[in-house]
Amino acid sequence: MQPFYQNSNCTIYNSNCLDYLKTQSEESIDFVITSPPYDNIRNYDGYSFDFKNIAKELTRTLKDGGVIIWNVADATVKGSETGTSMKQALFFMDCGLRLHDTMIYEKQNPMPASKNSKRYHQAWEYIFCFSKNTPKTFNPIMIPAKYGHVEANMKHRGKDGKIEYTKTKRNSHTKVRNVFNYKVGGGHSATDKEAYGHPALMPEKLAEDQIITWTNPGDTVFDPFNGAGTSGKMAIKNSRNYIGVELSKDYCDLSINRIEKVIKKNESTL
Hints:
Helix content is 24%, strand content 30%. It contains 6 helices and 15 strands.
């Protein structure tokens, strides 16, 4: 399969991702991050979303210790959720992957529901983390611990049976919780205006946080639904390689423009 675009560390294919995956060997992909067109709520050049076969191929091609980050939500049908996202998680497990972590992407400024809706404002989406066995890489995002500056009194019982206390230094930092909070929409989801030519942007910070967590510099990031190229932009920004597959030529062009700006910026700082 011929690339639509290629340079030293970024390759984009204008193709159906299932066709691309079938050309790849087993356990050849380091890491996957994507936000698929869930529930077929958008038409992508007439193609339907063949979830089960895509999931099987992603499982086959994922390396041992590799991770898939699957950002997904449910469509609303007749006023209620479809439950598709949970069905997808269970299917990935049926394929042999672990549901390593269920994270939440919380929107600080969600689109308000209609006043006639009988549901609360929908303010979050799933970020499923699937792994093939134990993840090879984990670089947790750390924040200062609330009481990291205070020594703890550790209780233990001495040889004489009396309870004793020992001053112990606490950890100065702690891992963030698995609920990630981001602003969305114009000026927040992406830093470049042209990105908003795509109707369903993954927030750049979401992609960056997950890429940094599950990969190291030099690893390859793969997005089977490349879209506006957000995964690619943040992969290149953080010294990873990138492969993206996208059905729409217009979105391929959009993503290349965004990614090339990052490449030029990186080159100017060398």
